């Protein structure tokens, strides 16, 4: 059993607290700049000093299996939300916080600094960090939805018609994607009575071949993965977001999309590890996106459009 590290939640909680604080200090430029710089230092420091382990929010350790709920006798289950922190999570969060820091510092160099704008960046940082740490599939879904809203707000803040349209389309398709992920989670919960990713993986392995409900859940979650990652057929939606955001935010959105791509792919591989066809399907969409993105990039005459499709590919 890994250590129940109390510092792990700070990687999510601190950005949320700082987002609220800088939002209240809107139009107080000096205060926003000072708090933002201090916050960025703390954000980078916390993952460095945090020990590898897990954090159990409910306070319950692993308990015996409930076959009447999961319909499968697996050794034990987690009761409550779990955050898992290891070497991979540490690297991803450090990369994320450092690049977020560069984006925020670029904004702070301007004379007028919007506390609300910085708050949205901090919220997106918190959401992406939670996505990296979550070992609970419903908690993962909640923060993907928060991330979509924060990203749309950052593009809307540009206050241009193209940005409004890009954010609107992103939210509309995000609703469809969110519904598919939530329905997939509901099917898994109905079949196995579990939300913890590790326990779901064990339960599905113990149950043998996936039944039609499990296959439907895999298809729905894969659809959500395609959208959240900006892969075909949702590549144009993401490229429009990159194109219409400010340069520093465009870079941040790209990093967040790549991290979500990796995090959700790992979840799919863990939960449906016995479903060999899933890997081939995901690889096929990834390769097709590379080709489509590259071809569309070659057709562009505007630099920002070209770079947005390069980012997608």
Write structural notes for this entry.
This protein is mainly α. The protein has one domain. 73% of the residues lie in helices and 4% in strands. The protein has 13 helices and four strands. The strands form two sheets. It has a two-stranded antiparallel ribbon with strand order 1-4. α1 runs antiparallel to α2, α6 runs antiparallel to α11 and α12 packs antiparallel against α13. The longest helix is centred in the middle third of the chain and has 32 residues. The protein is globular. About 4% of the residues have low confidence.
Share in β-strands: under 5%
Q: Describe the biggest sheet?
A: 2 strands, antiparallel
* Secondary-structure element order, N to C: HHEEHEEHHHHHHHHHH
Tell me the Rg in angstroms.
20 Å
* Domain module tally: 1
Strand order of the largest sheet: 1-4
Q: How much helix, percentage-wise, in residues?
A: over 70%
Instruction: Give the uncertain stretches in residue-range form.
Output: 65-75
Map the helices and strands:
Layout lengths: L9 H15 L4 H21 L3 E4 L6 E2 L2 H4 L5 E2 L4 E4 L1 H22 L6 H19 L3 H20 L4 H32 L4 H10 L5 H18 L5 H10 L2 H25 L4 H23 L4 H10 L1
Antiparallel strand pairs: 1-4, 2-3
Tag the structure with descriptive keywords.
single chain; 313 residues; two-stranded antiparallel ribbon; two-stranded antiparallel sheet
Give a concise summary:
This protein has helices at residues 10-24, 29-49, 67-70, 87-108, 115-133, 137-156, 161-192, 197-206, 212-229, 235-244, 247-271, 276-298, 303-312, and strands spanning 53-56, 63-64, 76-77, 82-85.
């Amino acid at each position: 059993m890994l250590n129940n590290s109390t510092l792990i939640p700070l990687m999510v909680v601190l950005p949320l607290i700082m987002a609220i604080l800088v939002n209240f200090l809107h139009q107080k430029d000096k205060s926003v700049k000072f708090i933002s710089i201090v916050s960025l230092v703390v954000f980078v420091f916390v993952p460095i000093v945090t020990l590898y382990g897990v954090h159990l929010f409910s306070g319950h350790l692993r308990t015996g299996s409930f076959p009447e709920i999961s319909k499968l006798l697996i050794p034990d289950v987690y009761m409550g939300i779990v955050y898992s922190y290891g070497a991979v999570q540490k690297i991803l969060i450090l990369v994320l916080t450092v690049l977020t820091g560069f984006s925020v510092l670029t904004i702070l160099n301007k004379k007028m600094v919007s506390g609300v704008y910085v708050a949205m960046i901090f919220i997106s940082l918190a959401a992406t960090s939670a996505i990296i740490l979550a070992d609970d599939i419903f908690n993962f879904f909640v923060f993907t939805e928060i991330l979509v809203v924060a990203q749309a707000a950052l593009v809307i803040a540009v206050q241009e018609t193209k940005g409004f349209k890009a954010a609107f389309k992103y939210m509309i398709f995000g609703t469809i994607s969110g519904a598919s992920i939530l329905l997939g989670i509901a099917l898994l919960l109905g079949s196995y009575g579990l939300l913890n990713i590790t326990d779901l993986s064990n339960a599905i392995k113990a149950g043998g071949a996936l039944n039609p409900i499990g296959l439907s859940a895999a298809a729905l979650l894969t659809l959500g993965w395609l959208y959240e990652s900006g892969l075909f057929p949702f590549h144009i939606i993401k490229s429009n977001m990159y194109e219409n955001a400010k340069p520093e935010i465009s870079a941040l959105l790209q990093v967040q999309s790549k991290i979500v791509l990796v995090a959700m792919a790992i979840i799919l591989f863990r939960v449906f590890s016995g479903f060999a066809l899933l890997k081939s399907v995901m690889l096929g969409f990834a390769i097709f996106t590379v080709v489509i993105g590259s071809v569309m990039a070659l057709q562009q005459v505007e630099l920002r459009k070209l770079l947005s499709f390069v980012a997608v590919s």
